[in-house]
Amino acid sequence: MTIAGVKIILVEPAGPLNVGSVARVMKNFGLNQMVLVNPQCDPWGTQARQMAVHAQDVLDAAVLVETLPAALQGCKRAIATTGVVHDWDAPLENPQTALPWLLEDIGQPAALIFGREDRGLSNQELNYAQRFVHIDTSSSYSSLNLATAVAICCYELSLSQDTVTPGHRNTGELSASTSHAPASLENAADSEIAPIEIVEGYYQQLESLLLKIGYLYPQTAASRMEKFRQLYNRTQLQKHEVAMLRGILRQVEWAISSHKNHEKL
Question: How many CB atoms lie under 10 A from the CB of residue 46?
Answer without folding.
Answer: 10
